[in-house]
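TIGR01244 family phosphatase structure dump, as promised
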Amino acid sequence: MDIKQITPELAVSPQISPDDVADLKAQGFRSIICNRPDGEGADQPSFEEIETAAKAAGIEARYIPIVAGMVQDDDADAFGKAMAELPGPVFAYCRSGTRSATLWSLSEAGKRPMPDILAATKAAGYDMNGVARRIANGGKTPTDTGDAQYDVVVVGGGAGGIAVAASLMARRNSLNIAVIDPADVHYYQPGWTMVGGGIFNAQQTAKTMGSLIPDGVHWIKAAVAAFEPQNNAVILDGCRVVKYDRLVVCPGLKLDWGAVDGLEDTLGRNGVTSNYRYDLAPYTWELVQGLRQGRAIFTQPPMPIKCAGAPQKAMYLSGDAWFRSGALKDIDIQFCNAGGVLFGVKDYVPALEAYVQKYGATLNFFHNLVAIDGPGKTATFNVAKPDAAPETVKMDFDMIHVCPPQTAPDFIRVSPLADAAGWVDVDQATLRHKSFDNIWSLGDVMNAPNAKTAAAARKQAPTVADNIVADIEGRSACAQYDGYGSCPLTVERGKIVLAEFGYGGVLKPSFPKFLIDGTKPSRAAWLLKERILPPIYWQAMLKGKEWMAKPEALSAKVD
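C-alpha cells r here:
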C-alpha cells in the first residue's frame, strides 16, 4: 500500500485489497472510506469484499462512490459527515487517492485556511489547485467565470507592486492595470531600522495605500487565495475571480513569528522586540534608552530574509547609543547568527568587524533561535557548528532584538508558480516565470539569488515593466536585472557602510569612491539614507520616476 498521510486523522491511498485491511488495523486505522465505485476496474475488489474484511478486523467501513472527475458538492458534504461520524483515524481510498484527497479538501473548506488545505494535500502528493475556486467558495461549485478582466494584474501593493504599476503606467498609460492587496497602509520598511535607533518616528514610514496607487490603476482591496495560471486567473478570498492577460507577482515575505516557540506571546514586552514590525520598532528604542546594564541579544535566522543586514544594524545603532550614554561598558552585547559569516559580501566585513570590536559585541555563529521565555528572560538556540555535534544553548537576556524566520507566503508556496523551495520560479535576468510566459515576479518572493531589499525592487520594477511592454508589442525580452541590491549598514549614528552588490557578490557601487567608498563608514552615506532615500522612495520609485534605476539592456549571453 502507498499510504499518504494528509492529517493525523486522515490518510489516503490508491486501491487496496481485502488482504491489506489487517495491516491497516495494525497501523491504528479505525475506519475505512471507499470512494471508488464498484466495477470501475476489471481487477478491482468490490466494496462488499473490503467491508467484510473490515468487519473481521473490527474496523468500520463506509461507501461513498465517486465517478472519476465528477466530485459533486453533495459528495463533499457526505465525506465531511463521514469524517465527523466515523472513529478516527480514518483511511480513504479510490483508484489513485486523488478523489479521496479532493473530497477532504472540499469538505474542509471554510474550516481551515485554503493554503493549509493545499499544503497538506501537496505534501501527500496530490495537487488540489484545480479545485481551488471551489475551496475558496466554501467547497461549493462557483457559478461565475470571472468578475473582472485586466491587461495586467499586480499581486501585492508593497514597494515592488506599486513601483512596477507606476513604471508600467509611465510607459503605456492606456493599460488597464489592477493592484491586488488587502492592506490599508503601505510601509516604508527600510525606515524601521532608523525608528528602532531613535532617528525616525514610526509615523514617517507609513502612508495610506489609497494615496499611493498610481492614477488610472485599479485597487482591488482583497487577499489572494490561489492562482490558476492555466486559465489566466487569480482567485480571491470569497471565490471572486480576476482574469488577466499578464500577471506580476510580488506580495512580499511572510514573517514566521510562530516558528520560534513562545515568541508571539512575548513580543512587545518582557524586553523582547523587533525592528521587523512597525508597532515594535519604537519599543526597540525604548528598550535601548532604558537599558543601563545587563545583556542585549540580537538574533539572525537562517537565510533568506529581507535585508540581511537589518539584524546587525539594530545591534550597531543600539551599541552606539550605549556608547554615547556611557552605558556600553556595563552591557554585554551578543550577536547570534544562524549563519556562519557576519556579512555575505566579504569586502564589507573588515569595516563591520571594527564596529563589532568597538561595541565589544560577541559573535555567535551557527546559533539559531528556537524558543523564548519572555517572563523568564531566557532565549534558547540550536547550535549546529560544522564538524561538531549539535547542541542546545540557553542565554539569559535583559533585552533581545529578534529577526523572525521568513518564508514565501502560504498561498505562494502551495501554488503552481512556486519552485520546490516555495519561491516564485523566475529567470534571474528577465524576471519572467520559467513555466508561464505571461507571468513575471519581483521583490522578496521570487527565487533569483539576490538580496531581498527595497533597493533591489527599485531596480527590478523598471526591468519587469520594460519586458512586459516588449511582450505586449510582440517583442522578445529587452531588459535584464543584474542582481543589484543595497544594504546601508548603519554602524553608528551619522555613519553608514553602504553595501551595494549584485549576483555573486560583485560590487555595484552607485557613486565614485571620492563621494562614497561603500567599504568604509561615511557621513555621506548616512545623509543618503536619512535625507535622500525616503523622498526618492515616496516621490520617485512609487511614482514611476526611475532615478538611477533605468533598465539594463538584455545581454545576448543571457539565456
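The domain at 149-253+408-553 is CATH 3.50.50.60 (FAD/NAD(P)-binding domain).
lmk if u need the other ones
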